[in-house]
Design brief:
Blueprint (H helix, E strand, L loop, with lengths): L7 H10 L6 H11 L2 H10 L27 E8 L10 E5 L26 H8 L3 E6 L19 E2 L2 E5 L5 H9 L4 E6 L5 H7 L2 E4 L19 E6 L2 H11 L29 E5 L10 H16 L3 E5 L7 H19 L12 H7 L11 H17 L2 H21 L4 E5 L15 H9 L7 H5 L3 E9 L3 E9 L4 H13 L13
Parallel strand pairs: 2-3, 2-6, 9-10, 9-11
Antiparallel strand pairs: 1-3, 4-5, 6-8, 7-8, 7-12, 11-13, 12-13
Helix pairs in contact: 1-2, 5-6, 9-11, 9-12
Protein name: Amidase
GO molecular function: catalytic activity
InterPro entries: Amidase, Amidase_dom, AS_sf
Length: about 500
């Protein structure tokens, strides 16, 4: 890309947009002054970019159809073999379609990104391959990952493997479904409001949102850098711990990764929970639309943990119910700035996918293609930005500390917090022509218990704990102290070993 000296007319229009009265003579003086800058910009354009390397060759990609993609969970299939040995040797992996995978399209579920192909691999993908895993494709996700349901992806809905016609949970819809179907050993997800834990809950698999920054977010599309998390979805807790052990750690690019505290997560497996203290958060239950099967199933799971030797008490954290408003103020205005006013989030050091910025820069020309979820979110973000000068975003960022402190106070007395991952089980996927209210209800009904921990950055895991009405999975969420993923895994593994979760809950097999 070459840098061109601006015209007088361009400078006057720019000034007008910023409330400056720019005369022709002032614009001409400005142009003459900045002329020497042109050589510097041209030098930048001529230098080779500095992005993560591509270490492993890959074959051609294709979009599977028919029986090969019955549930709609694949957006593309490819074959990338990693190292011949390592802790993940023989493991098949799917990558959420928000991750940069060189030579394979990245759409983030969006029609406006169709045809975009990244030039580099996200570092976490290289880590998986270095450990011996095999990447076999990219999983479907919701449009710009802006939904907890399964109705907005440009490639169509993802059906729940355990309840056809119902959501697999979003926004990492395909990732949860592929693990539940047994087509992959692990799928990568992204979590801004629960997008790893919601599909884990609704599809009956294991998904963790690690402590913020533990897994590098380089080369992954997000919403707002202060709520973006990446993590694995697997069939078992032990496999989840194994994959996180490979994924965690600094990558040398992501400036959000400071003061990491690393553990050997697989050592937590099989340790038991005698003496562990677990707080059952009252506010996570009995909400206005909580399904009674979910509340009953999770309370029964708490009793099971108590029978395994843990001390289990009901506790109250009133601030928990303030988490969604705080999250919304950050996520909506943050995403508006990172997508509409600026093609990519700025003000942070890291890797910037320049070609993606170019594609997002033309988003305004195709804004009518956006689904209701994105339109509503961007309109509200634009409104609070323009008419309140960012007040609610800034205030929510300040209140983040009070919300975090409320959980930390409880975690000062307890090792873990416990509540339902989602208030209800998988709901039916609405038709494409559903009215705005129905579509928005479907897409955002599941985030009440999950999104607060995107704000506070605590590690949180969802594990299946039973079946409810219609044999739909129920998810149990365990929340730990920052950097204490091993404690989370220890309790989750103990519960998993205590019995077949599909035999638990009101509709479990007897």
């Amino acid at each position: 890309m070459s840098f061109k000296i601006p015209s007088i007319e361009q400078i006057r229009k720019l000034g007008d947009g910023m409330g400056m009265d720019i005369t022709n003579s002032y614009a001409e003086a400005f142009i003459n002054y900045i002329a020497p800058f042109a050589d510097g910009y041209r030098q930048i354009a001529a230098l080779p970019d500095d992005v993560p390397p591509i270490k492993y060759p890959r074959g051609h990609y294709y979009r599977p159809e028919g029986d090969e993609n019955k549930h709609g969970a694949w957006i593309a299939k490819v074959n990338i073999k990693g190292a011949t040995s390592g802790p993940l040797a023989g493991k098949k992996v799917a990558i959420k379609d928000t991750y940069s995978l060189a030579g394979v399209p990245l759409t983030n579920g969006a029609s406006v990104l169709e045809g975009y192909v990244p030039e580099f691999d996200a570092p976490v993908i290289t880590r998986l391959l270095d450990a011996g895993a095999e990447v076999i494709g990219k999983s479907t996700c919701e449009y710009f990952s802006f939904s907890g349901g399964a109705a907005t992806s440009t490639s169509g809905p993802v059906h729940n493997p355990r309840a056809w016609g119902h959501t697999a949970g979003g926004s990492s819809t395909g990732s949860g479904a592929l693990v539940a179907l047994g087509e992959v050993d692990m799928a990568m997800g992204g979590d801004q409001a629960g997008s790893i834990r919601i599909p884990a809950s609704l599809s009956g698999v294991v998904g963790i949102k690690p402590t913020w920054g533990l897994v590098p977010y380089t080369g992954i599309m997000g919403m707002d850098p202060t709520i973006d998390h990446a993590g694995p979805l697997t069939a078992t807790v032990a496999e989840n711990a194994l994959f996180l052990e490979v994924l965690a750690g600094k990558d040398g690019y992501d400036s959000r990764q400071s003061d990491l505290e690393m553990e050997s997560y697989t050592k937590a497996i099989g340790q038991g929970i005698a003496g562990m203290k677990i707080g059952v958060v009252k506010e996570g239950f009995g909400q206005y639309d909580s399904h009674p099967d979910v509340d009953a199933g999770v309370q029964a799971a708490a009793k099971k943990l108590e029978s395994l030797g843990a001390r289990v008490d009901e506790i109250s954290i009133p601030w928990h119910l303030t988490g969604v408003p705080i999250w919304a103020a950050i996520a909506l205005e943050g995403t508006y700035h990172g997508m509409i006013t600026s093609p990519l989030p700025r003000h942070t050091e890291g890797v910037y996918p320049i070609s993606l910025a170019g594609r997002l820069g033309s988003l305004r020309d195709r804004a009518n293609e956006l689904p209701d979820t994105v339109k509503v979110g961007m309109l509200l973000g634009a409104y609070t930005d323009k008419y309140y000068q960012g007040y609610f975003y800034y205030k929510a960022q300040n209140l983040r500390r009070r919300l975090r402190a409320a959980y930390d106070k409880a975690l000062g007395s307890y090792d873990l917090l416990l509540m339902p991952t989602t208030r209800m089980m998988a709901s039916k996927i609405p038709p494409p022509d559903a009215p705005l209210e129905q579509m928005m209800q479907h897409c955002w009904e599941q985030i009440t218990n999950t999104s607060p921990f995107n704000v506070t950055h605590h590690p949180a895991i969802s594990i299946p704990c039973g079946l409810g009405e219609g044999n739909r999975p129920i998810g149990l969420m365990l929340v730990g102290k920052h950097w204490r993923e091993s404690t989370v895994y220890r309790a989750a593994d103990a519960f998993e070993r205590a019995g077949n979760w599909q035999s638990m809950g009101p509709s479990g097999k007897r």
